Amino acid sequence: MNEVVIGKAREKLSSFLRLFSTSPSSSTSSASHQDDLDELRKLERTMRRIRATLHDAEEHWNIREESAKLRLKELKEVAYDIEDVVDEYEYEVNRCKIEALHRADGVHNTGKRKHQEFHMTWFSDQEN
């Protein structure tokens, strides 16, 4: 049972890592972005299931077999990997949003500077 869960979690993690390798900052369609978000949600659900299984195992199961301990250790590693991927993706999305705000602010400020420079030049010409 645990091997199936570990296998599915690793498979989902691998597929999401392929999606993650293309940065959200690249110009992708909104449908593609929505697919990425759907995949992220699936990954988060998988992570919650893994955490619940780990909690149950640690609280209620009397595990003495080394193979079972190893599977639980692998499951924990997968859960940590999923958390890392989710955190990295959220960081990247937020970074892209901030960059977009800075670009928009830069365009807005550039226009103001040109406007101010024009007025300063015009007024200095009027004084002469």
UniProtKB/TrEMBL annotation:
Keywords on record: Leucine-rich repeat, Nucleotide-binding, Plant defense, Repeat
InterPro entries membership: Rx_N (IPR041118)
A biological process term (GO) from this entry: defense response
The Disease resistance N-terminal domain, residue ranges: 21-109
GO molecular function annotations of the record: nucleotide binding
Regions annotated as coiled coil: none
Family indicated by similarity: Belongs to the disease resistance NB-LRR family.
Gene3D superfamilies: 1.20.5.4130
Keyword check for Magnesium: no
Protein name, entry field: Disease resistance N-terminal domain-containing protein
This protein's record includes keyword Nucleotide-binding: yes
The species this protein was found in: Paspalum notatum var. saurae
